[in-house]
Amino acid sequence: MDHKITMENLQEIIQSIPLLSASASRLLQVTANPDHELEEVISLVKTDANLTARVLKVVNSAAFGLMTEITSIDRAISYLGERIIVSIAIGDCAGKLFEKELSGYEAAGGALWKHDLRTAIAARELVVQSGADISPDLAFTAGLLHDIGKSLISDYLKDTAPDAVSQISSQDSYDYLAAEEKLVGIPHTVAGYELAKAWQLPNELCEVILHHHKPSEAAEEARALTYAVHLGDNIAMLGGFGTGSDSLQYHLDSGYNEYLNLPPKVLDSVMLEVDIEFQKLEQSLEGMGG
Amino acid sequence: MAQVILGVGDYGASNAPGDEVKTFALGSCVSVILLDPKTRTVGMAHVALPDSSINKAKATEKPGYFADTAIPALLAEMAKFGCHKKGKGMVVKLCGGANVMDSNDTFQIGKRNALAIKKILWAYGMGAVAEDLGKNFSRTVAISVETGQVTLSSPGRPNWNI
Ligand SMILES: [Fe+2]
Ligand SMILES: [Fe+2]
């Protein structure tokens, strides 16, 4: 059976997906600028009553165990930090994409959100621990969005997981991207990239989404960021949160050494940190994506 | 049938014949399975990292998380079921410890986990009779307490036993 997706089909799929809200879209643009101020984030959130309410709900959730309720949005945002605000905004607009069952990957509902959240936490932690000149919060956002293309092509991949997996183990396909391309014509990286462009995401984020399995091919200005997400993705998969049938079915691009100076045994501390942080975030963002 | 579900860093045991001891989606984590034929007890630890020295507080809170603290904790747990304290007579099986394709030393956490576990088991005079370690896919493990059969599964692959 032939279920090939053409570029035209892909555009139709993308058009059927709700656009990001104006505030979420602005938020992603503002936070991608290395010189932005927290004030800008605060005033953006304030323009969106829904988002403001969600942020206050999250900050006062049991996960943070605050003794007294925070009622000021300014305080809530500085307490939570940018990355959690971005997670809430993305979850509000695109929660369904993250939440849906991805039968093409034999993945239960919420598996993609968990994978993305762990990738985001790991990418951020790698940036912090390597002291790279990248915004840790931008690495987080990029991690959150990197695999969004999976939810666009998953339905077309239905029942193909055994085939994809055996193509890779018999080396007929180089990795899961190559298998996706053979099976449905478009890999999840390209599908995600097209969505990112339709959403008018900042260029660095588009680059990460397109090249996260081979950062050496990303544009120079986005390459370090793409490596951080690439490694974060691998850490999420090694940690047992790899979406579904595609988990660990990709190659490590070891060119990261030039961009990220990783201390020895960094993996041990990053993996531990991811487990701790994930528990906290997942609980506080409950119902956001999965 | 009751399921004893173990998350990352958990360990546990059961001797109820209807039970199944289970852990989901091992990536680089390793599942240490101890079967005690004498008391018909099944124990398992879901180990995430080789060495507890990186975070002692975590090791105290969740000894199953690290290879060096998981095995003593699991043996102590199984002793509550009447098993030998040092694991005498137990059958050992290991699975998990996956790696990334084209992995380098930094990323071979699965391999380091498996090595650390084997070293500690050797110190107890124990060795695995069966193992399914390494390679590049995630594994879900289920053990029937009644038969001791270890069943592995992974999305996109038929189930297998070790
Ligand atoms: Fe991906
Ligand atoms: Fe991913």
Determine the CATH topology of chain B: 60s Ribosomal Protein L30, Chain: A
**Class of chain B in CATH?**
Alpha Beta
Tally of helical runs of chain B: 3
Structural class of chain B: alpha+beta
Helix percentage of chain A:
55-70%
Order of helices and strands of chain B: EEEEEHHEHEEEE
Shape of chain B: globular
Low-pLDDT runs of chain A: none
What is the tally of beta strands of chain B?
A: 10
Protein name (chain A): HDIG domain-containing protein
Pfam family, one (chain A): HDOD
Domain HDOD (chain A): 17-215
InterPro entries (chain A): HD/PDEase_dom, HDIG_dom, HDOD, RNase_Y/CdgJ
Present the secondary structure layout.
The complex is a heterodimer of chains A (290) and B (162).
Chain A: H1 7-15, H2 22-32, H3 38-46, H4 49-59, H5 73-80, H6 82-99, H7 111-130, H8 136-145, H9 150-153, H10 161-169, H11 176-184, H12 188-198, H13 203-211, H14 220-238, H15 266-284
Helix pairs in contact in A: 2-3, 2-6, 3-5, 4-5, 6-8, 7-8, 7-14, 7-15, 8-13, 8-14, 10-11, 12-13, 13-14
Chain B: E1 3-5, E2 11-14, E3 20-26, E4 30-36, E5 41-47, H1 56-61, H2 67-79, E6 91-96, H3 109-123, E7 128-133, E8 139-144, E9 150-154, E10 157-161
Parallel strand pairs in B: 1-3, 6-7
Antiparallel strand pairs in B: 2-5, 3-8, 4-5, 4-6, 8-9, 9-10
The complex binds fe (ii) ion (2 copies).
One fe (ii) ion (FE2) is lined by residues 115, 119, 146-147, 233 of chain A.
Pfam family, one (chain B): CheD
Keywords (chain B): Chemotaxis, Hydrolase
Catalytic activity (chain B): L-glutaminyl-[protein] + H2O = L-glutamyl-[protein] + NH4(+)
Kindly describe this structure.
The complex is a heterodimer of chains A (290) and B (162). Chain A is mainly α and 290 residues long. Chain A has helices at residues 7-15, 22-32, 38-46, 49-59, 73-80, 82-99, 111-130, 136-145, 150-153, 161-169, 176-184, 188-198, 203-211, 220-238, 266-284. Chain A has a domain at 7-17 and 101-284: Hypothetical protein af1432 (Orthogonal Bundle), CATH 1.10.3210.10. In chain A, helix 7 packs across helix 15 (266-284) and helix 10 packs across helix 11 (176-184). The relative contact order of chain A is 0.15. Chain B has a single domain, classed as 60s Ribosomal Protein L30, Chain: A, CATH 3.30.1330.200. In chain B, 21% of the residues lie in helices and 35% in strands. In chain B, helix 3 links the parallel strand 6 (91-96) and strand 7. The chains are: A mainly alpha (290), B alpha+beta (162). Chains A and B meet through helix 10, helix 14 and helix 15 of A and strand 3 of B. Bound molecules: fe (ii) ion (2 copies). The site of one fe (ii) ion has 5 residues of chain A, from helix 7.
